[in-house]
Amino acid sequence: MPNTIISGSGCYIPERVVGASYFLNSEFFDDNSQRLDKTNEEIIAKFVEITEIAERRYAAEDMKNSEMAAIAAEKAIQDAKIERNELDYIIAATNFGEVDEFGNSNFMPSFSALVKHRLGITNTKTRPYDMIFGCPGWLEGLILADDLIKSRRAKKILVVGSEKLHNQTDPYDRNKMIFADGAGAVVASASDDERGGILAANTRSYTAEELDFLENSSSLNPEADKKRLYIRMRGRKIYEFALKNVPDLIKETIEDAGLGISDISKILIHQANAKMDYAMVDRVYRLFGIKNGDHGIAPMTIQQFGNSSTATIPTMFDLIKRGEMVGHTFEPGANIVMASVGAGMNINAAVYRFS
User: Both 203 and 143 in a single domain?
Assistant: First the structure.
């Protein structure tokens, strides 16, 4: 059975940096559609204290989501040194598909088909596949690619995650400060090298009371247009859900790979809230019987890039691989964990070894 290796990676990080001052003139409402009685300075300061998001990146208004995806994908293809028409699949993870400057979401044609078109791929056997799976979408795409490769149904698969989220946030919701734009991609390839590749992966889907923890909903402002829908998240519910379920899945996946926490050099965890990420890493260590874990095992990009959903993990992977995250490298033989949580509610995790 072939192994699945990551043979190339790439990312697109928008140039526009959006800091705290951008939100100073905002009008914020709570979940009960009541205007918040604190000053915007206080609201923003508390937000930064909890999430550590000081900046985020926004794409230009005239840039399409599929354009960002294609830029990241092109870099991954070049890095993998493959011919693009050799790709068997393009798995594209996104939450809103193509997004225009008014925030309209479009999935016709499919997002993955648009990416294939922008890449100039003419092979009719290259199958485009949209992965709509919340923030864990890119990792779920990689897990699907691993299944396809190990079942010998494919040899080369492009997996891309791309989001243009700043147009999908309610102008009156303080949570709009979490979300950002960007794209990341990898090429997953079949390999006979037994030294590396995806060692284990797991996915869980929770669709009972968890279903509406993240959803689309109308504006918090009672006077705003109620036909327009925006990202709505129940922050406390998500925090509790993630802390309860993600560490357990990470531990299970590490053990499925025949490893322990001491064998793991990095945990690339979805970046949505720094406080939540730290708590999840701490719990992973405690599950392995270690009281004081090392937060350095989990690289962080949220402080500068915000939450770019499906783009977060592949962007972080690419930056580390290229030596662009100070203090973080991928050494030969190193084992890393990738894990995510998001709308669905879905969680997943995978262990990857570098050869």
Answer: no
Q: How far apart are CA 267 and CA 206, in angstroms?
A: 23
160 within 8 A of 184, measured Cβ to Cβ: yes
Express each pLDDT in 17-40 by its tens digit.
999 999 999 999 999 999 999 999
CATH value at residue 20? 3.40.47.10
Query: Do residues 134 and 86 both lie within one domain?
Result: yes
Q: Both 177 and 46 in a single domain?
A: yes
- Strands 127-131, 156-164: pairing is unpaired
Q: Is 165 exposed, middle or buried (0-12, 13-18, 19+ CB in 10 A)?
A: buried
Please name the residue ranges forming H helices in 111-232: 111-118, 137-150
pTM for the full model?
A: 0.96
Task: From residue 126, give the alpha-carbon distance in Å to each of 5, 80, 86, 129.
Answer: 19, 17, 8, 10
348 shares its domain with 251: yes
Burial of residue 198 (CB within 10 Å: 0-12, 13-18, 19+) is: buried
- Condensed to tens digits (0 to 9), the pLDDT of residues 65-122 reads 999 999 999 999 999 999 999 999 999 999 999 987 777 899 999 999 999 999 999 9
Backbone CA torsion sign across 343, 349, 315, 194: negative
Given a cut of 90, is residue 229 above it in pLDDT?
yes
The tokens for 206 are 């929770």
* Structural domain for 242, as ranges: 197-354
- Residues 171 and 276 placed together within one structural domain of the fold: no
Contact 117, 44 (CB under 8 A): no
CA proximity to 132, closest of 108, 161, 152: 161
